[in-house]
Design brief:
This protein has 308 residues and is of the alpha+beta class. The chain is 30% helix and 28% strand. Strand 8 and strand 9 form a beta hairpin.
Length: 308
């Protein structure tokens, strides 16, 4: 029985593919080629100045370049307006479609990429756009949906801004509280440290002769990280941590903790120094390892080897 069902499914798929293959392309005056299949849509044809919800898949050659199905956001809302007939005017095609209809378009690569084909596009590749009309709305309905979406987006942005404001407030309070501890540590250990406006401290032990690192550069570093009680938690110069090779990262893009992104940018290439980082600029309430307790202040002995 299972074999019969499987055979039936394969037969249906084969017939569907054969029907699609048999449908020939129609060409618009602007050169866009299209074919509509299957014509099983419901309701009236799409009219000028109406909204549609549609799924679409764009493929280049044998590869899918973009798909709304893979984005997980549902079909895209589009306003269909009668165009002026230029090379990118799809409106005459939409006016032949109903809810549920699908269309496949063969697009002109030169009109899309303006003659500058990306390296991954071969001259022989076809650019195919497949559309499925999910729903058709009147202009008033579409405007209402867009207004509701805009309101929801504004509410989400306001909520995120409020959460960020609260996070910044708590971080500022934490940095101010830990500043007392840092000042005592600096005095006890006789460190010649400079405080930054954000609340961390840095000290230059041996100043390098290179330029200050810039955001976006790849930096090569030596470092040892420890807590204020002297407990080491990581190092690329201490064999005990089993990775004695220079550490590389890109400055200013969030690959490292905030205290590193800010502090390393203050040390010219070739410099050996110390970074004293309050917990909100390190790992905060998180605990990346058993050695590091939540809200731990950190010290890093660092050397900026190179910046490229």
């Amino acid at each position: 029985m299972k074999k019969i069902i499987l055979l039936a499914i394969c037969l249906v798929a084969l017939i569907a593919n054969n029907i699609i293959a048999q449908v020939s392309y129609t060409k618009l005056k602007n050169g866009i080629e299209y074919k509509i299949f299957p014509k099983s849509g419901k309701g009236e044809l799409i009219k000028d100045s109406t909204y549609i919800n549609m799924h679409y898949i764009q493929s280049i050659g044998d590869s899918v370049f973009y798909s709304t199905y893979k984005q997980g956001k549902g079909p895209a809302l589009n306003l269909i307006i009668k165009g002026n007939g230029d090379m990118n005017d799809f409106s005459p095609i939409f006016f032949q479609l109903k809810k549920g209809d699908s269309v496949q378009m063969r697009l002109n690569k030169d009109s899309i990429f303006r003659g500058n084909l990306p390296p991954f596009v071969k001259p022989s590749d076809e650019v195919i756009l497949r559309l499925k009309i999910d729903y058709v709305y009147s202009k008033a309905q579409g405007d209402s949906i867009k207004a509701a979406d805009a309101k929801k987006f504004a509410e989400e942005q306001a909520k995120m801004a409020k959460q960020q404001e609260e996070a910044n407030r708590m971080a500022a309070e934490g940095i101010a509280k830990e500043d007392v501890v840092l000042k005592e540590y600096i005095a006890t250990n006789k460190i010649n440290a400079i405080k930054t406006p954000s609340g961390m401290y840095y000290s230059i032990l041996e100043k390098g002769t290179g330029e200050l690192p810039k955001n976006g550069q790849q930096l090569t570093m030596n470092y040892t990280g420890m807590l204020l009680d002297g407990t080491k938690f990581d190092s690329n110069v201490d064999p005990a941590f089993n990775h004695v090779q220079p550490f590389t990262f890109t400055l200013g893009v969030g690959q490292v903790i905030r205290g590193w992104d800010e502090g390393i940018a203050l040390l010219p290439v070739g410099t050996k120094g110390i970074l004293l980082i309050p917990s909100p600029m390190a790992y905060g309430p998180s605990s990346p390892s058993p050695v590091i307790k939540p809200n731990s202040i950190m010290r890093f002995d660092v050397e900026v080897i190179s910046a490229k």
